[in-house]
Design a protein that fits this description.
Elements: H1 10-40, H2 45-60, H3 69-74, E1 77-103, E2 110-138, H4 141-147, E3 152-153, E4 160-162, E5 181-187, E6 190-193, E7 200-203, H5 205-212, H6 218-223, H7 232-245
Parallel strand pairs: 4-5
Antiparallel strand pairs: 1-2, 2-5, 2-7, 3-7, 5-6
Helix pairs in contact: 2-7
């Protein structure tokens, strides 16, 4: 006589797996919605560069609550996203466009920019839509190389931590600066270090081509001095960075 063993946990396992698939599907749908929403409000690359410079200027004007100068003098580059759109109802997602600039380790001079997109999903008690300004401080050449690869996941391919705040690095801060990326955001006028895990970053090759007038690889723009005369918006940004953050003042 054939007997059938019933596992009381099997239905629970199926239920959990179904919920995981549903959550993953919702995240994908939400990210697609955000990407289409951002595309509908897309600005020309030059405007993204100008907005990125405005974000940096805004940070400098926040007294005692900005990115420490010591961090900026040590870093190898900055990724700046003037508008990261965040939306969700329980399941959340985000999408944004921005730029990456790098600093020559020998001369201290800044190069770039190249264009990036950022996105990802999150789970938590959240509702509504908002826009966040995001700045990622990249601490070493490995971090820069990670950003110009085909795909990058923060917290996976590169370590990321909420950045310390204030003009000076306090004694209690991780002076060793073990993270490869430190992240900051401005939302509704409030500035803070922000934790980012599982967020993807990709090079926007189409925006690079639109900005420079021809297809160019990120490495050519950042390291091989392939751009003899940067567009005016890029030159203004580089002048700003070279004025304030080229070298540590003596």
């Amino acid at each position: 006589m054939l007997s059938v063993f019933h596992n009381p946990l099997s239905k629970g396992c199926v239920h959990v797996e179904t919920m995981r698939q549903l959550i993953a599907s919702l995240i994908i749908i939400l990210c697609l919605f955000l990407s289409h929403f951002a595309a509908a409000t897309d600005t020309v690359p030059a405007a993204t560069v100008e907005e990125a410079q405005y974000v940096l200027q805004e940070l400098r004007n926040i007294p005692e609550a900005n990115i420490p100068d010591d961090l900026l003098y040590r870093c190898s580059g900055l990724a700046i996203f003037p508008k990261v759109y965040k939306a969700g109802f329980i399941i959340g997602g985000n999408y944004g466009q921005g730029i990456l600039v790098a600093r020559d380790s020998q001369t201290g001079q800044w190069t770039g920019p190249i264009f990036l997109t950022i996105g990802g999903g999150s789970i938590g008690y959240q509702i509504g839509v908002n826009v966040t300004e995001l700045v990622l401080v990249i601490m070493n050449p490995k971090g820069i190389n990670g950003f110009i690869q085909e795909n990058l996941t923060l917290g996976g391919d590169l370590s990321v931590a909420a950045g310390p705040i204030g003009r000076k690095l306090e004694a209690s801060t991780d002076i060793a600066l073990n993270a490869e990326v430190y992240s900051y955001s401005i939302s509704r006028g409030l500035f803070a270090g922000v934790a980012l895990q599982g967020v993807y970053v990709q090079v926007d090759y189409k925006a690079n081509e639109r900005f420079y007038g021809k297809p160019m690889l990120p490495r050519e723009i950042l390291f091989q001095k392939a751009v003899a005369s940067p567009p005016s918006s890029a030159q203004k940004l580089l002048d700003f960075l070279n004025l304030y953050y080229a070298k540590r003042p003596r």
